[in-house]
Amino acid sequence: MGKTIIVTGGAGFIGGNFVYYMLNKYPDYKIICVDCLTYAGNLSTLKEALKNPNFRFEKLNICDKTGVKKLFEEVKPDIVVNFAAESHVDRSIEGPEVFVDTNIKGTQTLMEVCRELNIPRYHQVSTDEVYGDLPLDRPDLFFTETTPIHASSPYSASKASADLLVLAYCRTYKFPATISRCSNNYGPYHFPEKLIPLMIINALADKPLPVYGDGLNVRDWLYVEDHCKAIDLIIHNGKIGEVYNIGGHNEMANIDIVKLILKKLDKPESLITFVEDRKGHDRRYAIDPTKIHEELGWLPETKFADGIEKTIDWYLNHKDWWQEIISGEYQNYYEKMYGGK
Ligand code: NAD
Ligand code: TYD
Prior knowledge:
- It is built from twelve helices and 13 strands.
- By secondary structure, the protein is α/β, with parallel strands linked by helices.
- Helix 1 crosses helix 7 (224-237) and helix 4 (97-116) runs parallel beside helix 5.
- It is globular, with a radius of gyration of 19 Å.
């Protein structure tokens, strides 16, 4: 029989992609998106999903225990997948408080409701950033699930705190949860404040491309659909109480990504502008995804060369989606962060 899945944060980048992935793959499942539509949540991302009778949207804050409990009591989900979060490191440096509220308190609220209602399964979408960073001169080092938590930014510290709470609930209450820690995602519906969409959009407008520091920081990029496939495997076949690392074995320096985007768009490298470095900027992230490969058979399927091509095409073909975003409140943010640069 079809399952009912609550997807929190489904109006955001990865949650939105996950909603479409699940609706397509499981035509007998009901998918309910819980999202309070912060600056990063966008109902137009869910425009097609909203036409599907198996999909429902609930505007709700995950910190609102009464509202969450009422909804969960009504729909009796089989699985809750928590994507809802404040997700941008730079914003966490400017204003950490909401990161504590949503990422920590929101996670605890969801788990508490699930516990009270005996919801059979909870999944926490976490990040490789909880492990801190690796040095550039030790390419032999990778994050495994047993790497100690060593968060650097208020964002990663809030995600790490949530992970610790999930693991504590598993141990103390035998709470039926899993955690996934994924590397940097890219693909459709990525909010334009993040590296790849920001660079595509600025290049299209012949605006400066702001590269932090020396541009040599390394991230391990994964096409968002591969992340969705991994979460699908974990929620159906993963072991309760376990953490699964997800990564693309695709390490790239920021400057190389920026140059590649310029090349694909036939724009000059003179658009690159080196700006002041991010405070506490993590140097390198690199995931060892052996566990999820061996236990659940997951492997990244999209090569970066293909994924970046698809992503650039998507931004070229969906100007309405991002033009609406960059013409609104986002403009104030951009001015504050990059004004004069
Ligand atoms: P996003 O910022 O694009 O989307 C977050 C969504 O959560 C938005 O729709 C927002 O409206 C919603 N939201 C925020 N606060 C809420 C609240 N209090 N109640 C209800 N909804 C709320 O984020 P994303 O990039 O899609 O990331 C999704 C998850 O994946 C996050 O938990 C993030 O930590 C994790 N993650 C992201 C990446 C990445 O590369 N983007 C990598 C690894 C893990
Ligand atoms: P981001 O997309 O914010 O993801 P994260 O910080 O979670 O890895 O940034 C990716 C990398 O790109 C990171 O090293 C910071 C860098 N960066 C820039 O150089 N310029 C920018 O304008 C942004 C947004 C990021």
